[in-house]
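Chapter review: from sequence to fold.
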Amino acid sequence: MKIIEVKQQWPSNRLRIEIMIGNTCNFKCWYCFPGSNEGTHRWPEYDLFVKNLDHLLNYYKSNLGKETFELHIIGGEPTLWPEFGSFIEYFKKNHDCVFSMSSNGSRTLRWWQQYGSYMDKVILSCHH
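The C-alpha cell string follows.
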C-alpha cells in the first residue's frame, strides 16, 4: 500500500465554526433533515450567546494563533431570529468574521438590503 500525503489547503490561522442557532423555520421542506424545522428549539439568549462566542474566539486568537474565523450559520431559518442582524453585525465589527449561512431566502428585500452586506456567502435553498 502506498501512503498518500494529504495537504491541507485551508490556512492554519483560520477556523470555521458551524453554528445551528435553532430549528424554527417558516417552511416545512421535504428534503430537510428530521427536526430541522419543528420549532422546538427557539433562539439563543442573545447576551449569553454573544458573550460565550466572543470568549471562544478570543481564546482561539490568543492561545491557538487563529486570526480568521468563518462562522457558518444554520438552523431552521436563521434570518427569523430577531437578533440575527445584531449578532452578525457585532461579530463582523469585533472579530472581522467571514459569515456564511444557509437560508431559504424568504426575508423581505428590505431585510437583505439592511443585513446582506454583512454576509460573505449565502447558500439559498430552492423551493419549487
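Two observations follow directly from the output. The CA atoms of residues 22 and 75 lie 5 Å apart. Strands lie at 14-20, 68-74, 98-103, 121-124.
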